[in-house]
Amino acid sequence: MCGIAGTVSFGTSEPLSGFPAAACAAMAHRGPDEEGYHHDERAALGMCRLKVIGLADGSQPAYSEDRGIVVVLNGEIYNHRALRRFLADRGRPVRGGSDAHILPALYEVLGEDFVDRLHGMYSIALHDTRTGRLLLVTDRVGKKPLFYSRLADGTVVFASELNALMRHPGIDRAVDPLAVDQYLSYRVVPAPHTIYRDVRKVEPGTVLDFEAGRPEKHRRYWRFEFTADPAEAADPRRAADTVDALIQRAVADRLESEVPLGAMLSGGLDSSLVVAVAARQLGRRLHTFSVGFEHDAFDESVYARLVADHCGTEHHTYRIGVADARRSVDRILTHMGEPYAFPSAIAADCMYRLAREHVTVVLTGDGSDEIFAGYRRYRTFEQLPHIDPASAARVDTEALAAGDGSLADRYQAVLVDGVRGGLKHRLYDPAFIARLPEYPVNHLRDRFARTAAHRPDLDRVMEVDCGFWLPDAQLVKIDRMAMAHSVEPRSPLLDHRLIDYVTRVPAAAKLVDGNEKLLLKQVAARYVPDSVIHRPKQELAVPLESWLGTTLRPDIQTTLLSEASLERGYFAPDALRAFVTAFRPEHTYALWTLYMLERWHQQHADTQAAPAPAASLRTAGR
Questions:
Q1: pLDDT per residue over 137-189, tens digit each?
Q2: What does the pLDDT look like over 546-570, one tens digit per residue?
Q3: Which residue from 41, 257, 335, 414 puts its CA 20 to 30 A from 185's CA?
Q4: Are 414 and 394 in contact (CB under 8 A)?
């Protein structure tokens, strides 16, 4: 696991050779064990490495035999041993002990199609020094991040984290109003956007191809496709057997490590299943980690302990209090590099900090809700337009009434839980609305337009979630909070072979009479106690409403009612002042969303140190 960064020139300007080192210094937490750099007349590449595989002979950058191809990798290629054999059979033996070292030779044999052979989580930068070509690649699901910007002269700058990328002095730091509008709806900035107008995220399963004299090419080499094949639901036992075998294989692939390995164990269905399978396969006692809360309604630690005892793990628990929330806020924003308002990141921050005391690699149970129909909002969506009272609080009824009844409008009404449409309209400054390309806008429309209209609505909803909610809300949290503490997270339930199968099973066979994740529960019954499988779902949440109404309230009000906040230009000052002063419990998530936006401004946009002068970066790497 690493952080990668670089700059490649496609014009007459020289690359800033010191930029990779400056970027790696900003994300040293991603790779505290080793650094490595490459410089030539067109490119400067770098990486900071967390040693997991190939401890003694796994240094990067990795080169082809003639050093014409240079690669930096962030992540893990789980089938690297099989690919070594594939290359050896073709007369291309690979030197070097890490998975990164197979990539230059694989590219020489297969060209750009080398990405189709990779099983794992990765972001890759490959530079062909002979032609000047640059490839930026992300894994299929979007586990490993990659940000980039193309400057006016054609130069490409990239890095694994946004704060690292912004060390380059050539990148405009102007905030994107459209990104702000999206963030306020979803509590994240969805790819390909970032909070900065001139910076983009490489979307999951994508190859970006840069060459001199032409625009970059974008190729999506893999995507979630919910094909809803009824044949896959005809025999529930066979479906469960198939899923079981795929999960066992996925877990086995992720147990390779030359450093201590453990697992996150929330006590929920997903992490419990992963821990149970891993404990059987590993053949030794596994370290497991969970968090607890003083508020019983949020505390799953008793279930985590039950599973730990059942599986014979060495279990560790950390109890989270409001002081942890205060400490976590700025760390979350530092590692995200942009506004992010999922309070569950506080719990993730504490869990990975605990894990780092004992291990370097952890397995997680993340990623199943989007493919196995695990979210409560899927039930709510299916109940529209006849919403029961328990679901009504989770639906933006104003947006539902204002929409045209399309699938995008119906799901938008369920999904948005940051600042909903009616509240936005009351808060927005007219001058800010004028800066938006369109208002109001449903940002989901284009995403639904890329799904097959003939498929069932719930399958299309889950496909949109997999391309947006999963990478931009969930996987971002896992990657940034784990790497903040130099921990490598691995998610077996996001193995693309498992996904390829499960997405062929109709959603109607996974959400049955309100019973979520029925197929996965049938598998889990073979490994974990019934009390874990059949208890009500409890997402990794924190007691935000209680904290906001008591200890955190002064911080939030002071921040949002500050002169800088009131003059930010997004909101009408009087409307914002009235909303924050009222501080109503039903606006908990909206308040937190506004607070994290303003804290980001104060931490980054207002006080961010200027990047090093170009002249110093031009000489620093030499």
A1: 999 999 999 999 999 999 999 999 999 999 999 999 999 999 999 999 999 99
A2: 787 778 899 999 999 999 999 999 9
A3: 335
A4: yes
Token pair of 482 as six digits: 């784990």
CB-based contact 6:125 (threshold 8 Å): yes
Nearest-angstrom CA–CA distance, 149 and 169:
12
Residues 347-382: b if buried by 16+ CB within 10 A, e if exposed: bbbbbbbbbbeebbbbbbbbbbbbbbbbbbbbbbbb
Helices (H) and strands (E) in the chain, counts: 30, 17
Cβ-contact 427, 571 below 8 angstroms: yes
3 state DSSP class of 255: coil
- Nearest CA among 42, 31, 40, 33 for reference residue 8: 42
Note whether 180 and 570 are within 8 A (CB): yes
Alpha carbon distance 622, 600 (integer Å): 34
**Locate tokens 């009479």: which residue?**
513
Helix (H) / strand (E) containing 318: strand 314-320
Q: Report the run of H or E that residue 1 belongs to, with start and end.
A: none
Three-state DSSP at 169 gives coil
pLDDT digits (tens, 9 = 90+) for 402-420: 777 899 999 999 999 899 9
Whether the CB-CB separation of 48 and 27 falls below 8 Å is answered with: yes
pLDDT band at 622 (very low <50, low <70, confident <90, very high): very low
Q: Give the closest residue to 191 by CA, choosing from 222, 233, 145, 229.
A: 145
Helix (H) or strand (E) holding 477: helix 476-484
Tokens 């910007």 belong to residue: 149
* DSSP assignment of 489-544: EE-GGG-HHHHHHHTTS-GGGTSBTTBTTHHHHHHHTTTS-HHHHSSPP--S---H
Cis amide linkage into residue 177, ω under 30° from 0: no
- Spell out the residues 6+ positions from residue 295 whose beta carbon is closer than 8 angstroms to its own: 543, 546
Asked if residue 570 lies in contact with residue 428, where contact means CB atoms within 8 angstroms, the answer is: yes
3-class SS string, 114-150:
HHHHCCEEEEEEEEECCCCEEEEEECCCCCCCCEEEE
- State the pTM of this model: 0.95
